[in-house]
Design brief:
The two termini are 17 Å apart. This protein has one helix spanning 2-9; strands at 15-19, 30-43, 46-57, 60-67. Strands 1-4-3-2 form a four-stranded mixed beta sheet. A hairpin with a 2-residue loop joins strand 3 (46-57) and strand 4. The protein is mainly beta.
């Protein structure tokens, strides 16, 4: 978030798009809500629904994609 924060302080509009990992602690976000919009993705011959959530942290908008397919149910972020 360091680069995002600095760009925000320089009056740039900063939006961050992330997968909604199951291990994320989202309690620090303000205005956290589900967006009334879904879209589908195809994976290995199956179609899955994706939900969108938004929140703010220090004036920065964070958008999370939450797929029906459990790709981000890992217990932790690694990499």
């Amino acid at each position: 978030m360091g680069l995002c924060r600095e760009l925000h302080h320089l009056n740039h509009t900063v939006d961050v798009l992330l997968p909604r990992y199951d291990s994320l602690r989202l309690g620090f976000l303000t205005d956290f809500k589900k967006i009334p919009f879904t879209f589908t993705t195809d994976y290995k011959g199956n179609t899955y629904k994706n939900e969108i959530y938004e929140g703010h942290y220090g004036g920065i908008k964070l958008t999370f994609i939450h797929p029906e397919l459990p790709l981000f149910n890992r217990g932790e972020i690694y990499g």
